Amino acid sequence: MNLIRYQVPDTSPWPALDRWGNLRDELNSFFDMPFSTAFGRPGQLFTGWSPALDLYDSGDHFVAVVELPGMRKEDIDISLHDGTLTISGERKRESESNNGETTQRSERYIGTFRRSIALPTRVDAGRVSATYQDGILKVTLSKAEEAKPKQIQVS
Amino acid sequence: MNTLTRETREGDRRQAVQFITPPASVTEIGDGYMLEIEMPGVKKDGLEISVENNELTVIGRRSLPAVEGTPIHRESRPENFRRAFEIDPSIDADKISAKIDQGLVTLILPKAEHVKPRKIAVS
Questions:
Q1: Residues of B in contact with A40 (CB under 8 A)
Q2: Complex-level ipTM beyond the 0.90 threshold
Q3: Based on the structure, what is the number of domains in chain A?
Q4: What is the value of pTM for the model shown?
Q5: Are A57 and B70 a contacting pair at CB < 8 A?
Q6: pLDDT in tens, A64-91
Q7: Mean pLDDT per 10-residue run, chain A (155 residues)?
Q8: In B, which residues are within 8 Å of A17 by CB distance?
Q9: Alpha-carbon distance B65 to nearest alpha carbon in chain A (angstroms)
């Protein structure tokens, strides 16, 4: 017997046409939008779990934000090598018990993931910190001294 | 192209609400079901769960502090999450419980008492 049936609301992946008030401005901002999931993630060789990764440049440091819901801090691995930040980990099934549990349907990925991103400028490997809250991993990397933006006085 | 811009100006009056459909999984546990929905960036007070006419709707509103800085690379989407499920009448809607931990919403949907198998004594 099929006890729960899914009813996915029909949401369009495209932004509401309402916002296209000024067509040219909106077309320009369209290219600033994040990649649509329809195009897949760049640099991905296999279809599997590929959590969304954002990278921001905040002047004297970078911030990498990864969406990792339902994980434990200890299952997340962050490493920095040759200017490339790699975030990997494994998501295990919440309850490992097998007392009559049968998964009816799962859209969630269970298993390992790995995301890498090359950082545009050198970072100080000794000054990297990370927080994991509400399923969002935020990694802060301080730029190496010579890579920080500096003001140059004109004498 | 001309008609498109004309139509969209009228549409500005309407509230455009966009949601993403998050992935979910259903597991049968003992006397009921466990529903897990992924909603990263959503805190407890951003969750809105309601049941109406055998339809369970879960809405999660993201409350992320904006990162100061220029985005170099963006894959995440800013929209909120919404997922609706049709619940079989055998679920006791009054006893549905929910919790959220690290962006994962877990709902327990217990089956109603009357559908559980029970022994009938012979007098």
A1: none
A2: no
A3: 1
A4: 0.70
A5: yes
A6: 999 999 999 999 999 999 889 999 999 8
A7: 57 50 56 47 56 93 94 93 92 59 77 92 91 94 83 81
A8: 4, 7-8, 11
A9: 11
CB contact under 8 A, B71 and A19: no
Q: For residue B63, what are its two tokens?
A: 């409350």
Q: In chain B, which residues have their Cβ closer than 8 Å to the Cβ of A100? A: 28-30
CATH label of the domain that carries residue A90: 2.60.40.790
pLDDT in tens, A32-47: 555 444 444 444 445 5
Please check whether residue A28 lies inside any domain of the structure.
no
The tally of domains found in chain B comes to 1
pLDDT averaged per 10 residues in sequence order, chain B, 123 residues: 51 60 90 92 94 93 84 90 91 92 94 78 85
Residue B87: which domain range?
40-64+78-114
Pairing of strands B70-73, A136-143: unpaired
- CB burial of A111-140 (b: ≥16 within 10 Å; e: otherwise) equals eebebebebeeebeeeebeeebebbbbbbb
Q: Which helix (H) or strand (E) holds A23?
A: helix A23-30
Q: Mutation target for A interface from B19, B21, B75: give the one with most A CBs within 10 A.
A: B75
B115-118 LR contacts (CB < 8 Å, sep 24+):
B115/B90, B116/B31
Give Cβ neighbours of residue A141 (< 8 Å, ≥ 6 apart): A61, A62, A63, A64, A80, A85, A119, A123, A124, A127, A128
